[in-house]
Amino acid sequence: MRQLSEEGRRTLGGIAERYGVSLGAVEHLLMAIIAGQATQAQFNHPDLGGMGQWSEGGMIMVGDMFNNALKANVAGVCSELSALVRGMDLPGPQTPSQSQYQGQGGGVSLFVPGALSAGNWWPEELGHPASTGAQNDLRYAFFPTTRRLAIDIGGRVMVYDTKDHRIGGFSQQQSGDQSLSFTSQYG
User: Fold this and answer.
1) Average pLDDT, whole number, for the chain?
2) Strands 169-172 vs 106-109: parallel, antiparallel or unpaired
3) What are phi and psi of 14, to 5 degrees?
4) Which of 89, 96, 99, 167 is CA-nearest to residue 133?
5) Where are the beta strands (DSSP E) in the chain?
6) pLDDT-derived band at 181, boundaries 50, 70, 90
7) Which position has the higher pLDDT, 96 or 122?
8) What does the alpha-carbon distance between residue 80 and residue 127 come to, in Å, rounded to a whole number?
């Protein structure tokens, strides 16, 4: 996880307060939106109804699918975070210069300088993930352009070749075990 600056913590804390979710949930969404290049996010956080997805333009899915208030909150948080990320210049792999958000009131430094590039736990050569998630000491990052899936279990990172699988969904159990399921064109 990238280290937030004090300004970043205040900015994200304000968003969390406005929408009635935890700072951890907002940080989780920020990382998902950065991974989705400010246009989409896949997330899995209890404050956000578990697993869900957001796409710019109005698509929102949360685990508690009939909770319209939760959907509205998640959409609001994602929209605000997307605007922040757009100001961070994210064309490819992140660099420390991307920690600046140029808003109406001047620049807000979201991340501690230099901490942004060190925040990735996967091998740098994999590039920018399309999807990431974490739960129960297990985290994953999926890289469709390099056709790789990185999985970290308790600090041990393994990288798998996904061959021709077009993975479109991930599922992690909320119990104490470490299981991860995928959905691709093959099921």
Assistant:
1) 76
2) unpaired
3) -65, -40
4) 167
5) 40-45, 50-55, 59-62, 100-103, 106-109, 131-135, 138-143, 148-153, 156-161, 169-172, 180-183
6) confident
7) 122
8) 25
